[in-house]
Amino acid sequence: MTRLSAFSAPGRFWRGNLHTHSTRSDGVLDPAEVCRRYRAEGYDFLALTDHFVGLWGYPIVDTVPFRTEGFTTILGAELHSGAMENGELWHILAVGLPPDFAPSDTPDFRPHAAQETGAQIAARAVAAGAFVAIAHPQWSGLTMGDGRALADIAHAVEIYNHGCAMGCDRPDGFILADQLLTEGHDLTLIATDDAHFSEPDHFGGWTMVKAEENDPAALLAALKRGDFYSSTGPELRDVRIENGALVVECSAAVSIIAIGWGTGAKAVHGHSLTRGEVPLERLNNSPWVRAAVIDAAGKRAWSNPIWTGATAPNPRV
Length: 317
Known about the structure:
2 domains, 17-stranded mixed β-sheet, TIM Barrel, Immunoglobulin-like
């Protein structure tokens, strides 16, 4: 049996949003009000990730004063430096940055010849201790070449972005993530809001992190280990491979799906499913398998990939 570590690690699940903006960059609400609203909605933690651009003074917002009993924050930013293949500036999520993380040469949202590449600033963030994710691949128009440039540096791909779902109907990163997994890159999958509060872009996608404490250091370590799942509604309670099947235990669902490389996928359907066994024969000996769960309202949850042993993932540098 192979079980995802999120469902065997000690602790409990904490609900958080890892991608959020305030008036310190292009958001509508000030940091205190953003934190208040997430706390009032029952979130356990929040990362305020304003745009790390000279236009706004390269902000890494101090949210420590907004922590309360039962609610904590992780410092972070959305980094921008270097051009993607389409000529636009990179967007890279960095959660767990130190307050003195050195600014990039990014005065505005245009690439500049002398600035760091996306890979260079991502590697610098990882070296500084951050959990780094490739932000909104579909919205950004990322190519596979772009993805490969960060695939062995970043920890994760943002596979659902609620702001991009509501604002432009370009919410996902599954094509990029699945292909990078197929190429052997060891990446996890996060869902976020990317909330600006200028449209209904909040409280729609979140990450459930398994840790012993609702503490920034514990949450950050769990994120780096991959001890989490992502959701827009359903709960995942166990994901494992057992006797040639993907076994998923969850809140009430209508579909439980096993997804692998290429055309490999298989689903089971029903009413109020809380457990499903999906045979893996249809996944064509995929070296990785991930679970998706859909409830009766169309809300979804996604697991991180399980590596089956058919191919070992490449180590992250």
